[in-house]
Amino acid sequence: MQIVNLALEAGRSLQKKQTGYLHYCYQSKDLTTHDTIPIFENALFALALFRTRLSDHVLEGKEILEKLLAFEVKGNFPVYLHEYPQKNDPFVGLRLLPIFFWICHDFSHVIGELRQKLEACIDRIIANVKRDSLPDWATMRLLAMEGKIGPLPTTEFDWGEALISLQIAEKKGASIEEAMQKASENWHSTLFFYKGESGRWNQEKGEIKQSLFSLFMHAFQKSNKQLSPDPLHLKAALVRPLSFALDFQKMPDPYIAFHPKGEAPLFIAWKGEGITHSFVFAKKHLQISGTAEEFIISYPEEKQEDGLEASFFLNYHQAHEILVNGKKASAFQIGDQVEIRSQGVRITLQFTAENGRFFGHLLRGNRPSQHGCKGKDHFAAFDWQIALRTISRGPNASIRMRALFLKMPANPQPLPLHASHYPHKESSQ
């Protein structure tokens, strides 16, 4: 199964021959130093090994699990093996719960005495949970073990965790078709990203960041999109086939979202060759009102030091070209026309100002939701930044932005070489 292979490959890339464990550190600054041994990722790897149903892999997974169980502390586990017996995260046990559940459910006939150990561990995890201060995903996890669904989530992270719980709840007797269909409605089936009303779209280098939710949706949709290697893929071990088909509706391309109160009030995404391009407006502390096609940026009286309080970001890609009044430039005046030409899309921006003087810059930068600036890429710039700098402003200063979004042919026909090649049009007298 392809989704299981994704988890297996991610696990093998982190496995050390000296210990047999996966070595991974969440806090690694250079992304290459991974000396610690996390409990959760190793358990995910064990589940992936089991799900291949190859005898050597099943034995390897069984051996890893038996070792991990020795580190239990009253229904919970340390984050890393070396932290034992400390429990720095109260929810490690709840994250492990689905792994133990599915191994007992699917492989009880091959794990022998390990089944009794896992079932007893599951009981202790549930019994020792402090239920008075649980996050929503954890509450849903416990309800799932009782065959119940509970309130549906509203964020991408919680939806990813909810999909794990929903598949457990189904095995416990709950009907999950309606909840799963609700989940699919938050998925852009053409551009492959979570489109729920978050007002924030996380970016990983040049693409929209993968998530547990996106792993589920790729599997349910049976998409053929090539995913960049990521430790996240270990969680694909928890993605199981559905017992029914989801109705993925056709979504618009380009996709335009406008959430005035969100971190990124304007978000535009469109399909390129093997990539989803995106263009966002990051507002910081500014007030936004209007529509995607025309909105007003209202400034406070106090100015920030760098003056760059309003910026638009476009993922850096060779397919993009940014022009000012039809020419390449590195700066622009308020009133100039800024045009973005890309694969299949053209975006035209024009600004007017009230009670203030502003100046525009075109430079390399990173949107606030960029997660790719780590390790060797710590100082890399993955976006084009269209920034509006404040020169001076008075009370009630604002900028009005007008935008025009055009869908263009992905492969436009070449222009005729001679005027006679243009179609002749008669004009009525």
Outline the structure in words.
This protein has 429 residues and is of the alpha+beta class. It is built from 9 helices and 15 strands. Strands 5, 6, 7, 8, 9, 10, 11, 12, 13, 14 and 15 form an 11-stranded antiparallel beta sheet that branches. A two-stranded antiparallel sheet has the order 1-2. Strands 3-4 form a two-stranded antiparallel ribbon. Helix 1 crosses helix 2, helix 2 packs antiparallel against helix 3 and helix 4 runs antiparallel to helix 5. The termini are far apart.
Short description:
This protein is α+β, with helices and mostly antiparallel strands and 429 residues long. The protein folds into 2 domains: 2-238; 255-407, no CATH class. The chain is built from 9 helices and 15 strands.
Write the layout of secondary structure elements.
Elements: H1 2-14, H2 39-52, H3 55-69, H4 92-111, H5 114-127, H6 136-144, H7 156-171, H8 177-184, E1 187-188, E2 193-194, E3 203-204, E4 207-208, H9 212-221, E5 255-258, E6 266-271, E7 276-282, E8 287-290, E9 294-298, E10 308-315, E11 321-324, E12 331-333, E13 337-342, E14 345-365, E15 383-407
Antiparallel strand pairs: 1-2, 3-4, 5-6, 6-7, 7-10, 8-9, 9-15, 10-15, 11-13, 12-14, 13-14, 14-15
Helix pairs in contact: 1-2, 2-3, 2-4, 4-5, 6-7, 7-9
